[in-house]
Write a structure and sequence with these properties.
The structure is a single chain. The chain has one domain. 82% of the residues lie in helices and 0% in strands. The protein contains four helices and no strands. The radius of gyration is 16 Å and the shape is elongated.
């Protein structure tokens, strides 16, 4: 999914309506990945890196790299997902310990 989104940004830019819809799906997939891999933070980091690195690279090479708002979102959103994964992992552990 990261390669598809990254190549779409590279080819069409991020102002295309279809690309923006693809990016919305991409964000939902990223958050679902965090929920799926909540038991292992290393896997979360790897998965988010694979999802978002092509987006940032596609944006840098698309010729519109001067617009840094998208680059900021491409870096901040994975960090947000990592923090949410950490909180979910602590909540999961607390629920497991309370059920004992």
């Amino acid at each position: 999914m990261g390669l598809v989104s990254g190549s779409a940004i590279y080819l069409f830019g991020c102002h295309d309506r279809n690309v923006l819809m693809l990016l919305l799906y991409h964000a939902a997939i990223a958050f679902a990945t965090v929920n799926l891999l909540v038991h292992d933070r290393a896997l979360i980091g790897t998965a988010l890196g694979l999802l978002f690195a092509p987006l940032v690279i596609g944006r840098l090479f698309s010729g519109e790299a001067h617009l840094v708002s998208f680059l900021g979102a491409g870096v901040v959103y994975p960090l947000y997902c990592l923090m949410q994964g950490k909180k979910l992992k602590h909540a999961l552990r607390a629920a497991d310990l309370s059920s004992l």
